[in-house]
Structures are given as C-alpha cells and as structure tokens.
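Tip: read the tokens left to right.
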C-alpha cells in the first residue's frame, strides 16, 4: 500500500496509533511534497486528537518543505492555509504560524472562525493563533487586518 493510501486509511487516530507511527517513520528520508495533502487531510480527520509525538513527527516532515514549493498546482503555504480554513487544529495552526505569510494566515483563520461547523477546540485554536498573529507577526499585519481581527475576537 502506498504512503498516500496508508495516510488516507488513518481515520481513528487513537485506534490506529501503531499504523500512524509506522507511517510517520516511513516518511523519514522521503522527499515527496505530493504527500502533503494526504498528511493535512489526516490531521483534519483527527483534529480532536492530541497525540503530540506522532503529530509532531508528521509536522517535522512538513517543516522540511519550502513554503513556496509547488504541490498539486498550489504552494505548501496555500495547502496549509486551506487546511486550517477547513478544520483548524493545534498542529496545523502551529504550522500556519511558521510557514504561511501573516496576512494569508489571518485570512485562513478568519475564514475558519466564520464556519458554522467549527468545533470548540478548533475555535479556540483559531482565535488563539489570530491573537498571536496580531502581537507577533513580522512584518506586522496591516491596520485594516488588525481591525478585522479585533471585531471577530471582540477585542
């Protein structure tokens, strides 16, 4: 079974932790950016999980990619932003802060916060990451963007 098939098969992370660990180990030394969408989709399917170790192994692999590298007609940064927009979780929000330009990251987070189907943990993750962007973005966010964020966050 290919790595993409194995990633796609991880639907209940805690129940499949041994397979997730095996897939993360199989990624070592693999430099194939086309795996990124499958890893992000696996994160999205398991967004409510909190396995630091295995999730961290996958994110280490993602961090080796160049944010502007082409992946399936888009960039690594755009794939991460789109994933956060669909279903923010702590690990993708962390990747967003590190690999996506601040304005693009803020748009993804604002989009996520506008979703009716956002979970409480997803809402907390997106709001917290937005607050961090306002404080720490380098270069700083535009005044207009900060204003939009403040309205959404009720600040």
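Filled-in amino acids:
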């Amino acid at each position: 079974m290919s790595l993409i098939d194995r990633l796609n098969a991880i639907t209940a992370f805690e129940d499949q932790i041994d397979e997730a660990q095996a897939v993360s180990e199989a990624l070592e030394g693999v430099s194939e950016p086309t795996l990124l969408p499958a890893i992000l989709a696996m994160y999205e399917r398991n967004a409510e999980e909190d396995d630091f170790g295995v999730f961290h192994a996958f994110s280490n692999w993602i961090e080796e990619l160049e944010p502007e590298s082409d992946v399936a007609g888009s960039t690594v940064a755009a794939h991460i932003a789109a994933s956060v927009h669909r279903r923010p979780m702590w690990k993708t929000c962390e990747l967003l802060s590190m690999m996506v330009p601040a304005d693009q990251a803020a748009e993804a987070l604002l989009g996520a916060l506008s979703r009716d189907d956002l979970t409480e943990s997803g809402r907390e993750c997106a709001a917290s990451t937005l607050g961090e962007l306002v404080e720490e973005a380098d270069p700083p966010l535009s005044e207009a963007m900060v204003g939009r964020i403040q309205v959404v966050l009720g600040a």
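The chain has a mean pLDDT of 94. The chain is about 65% helix and 5% strand.
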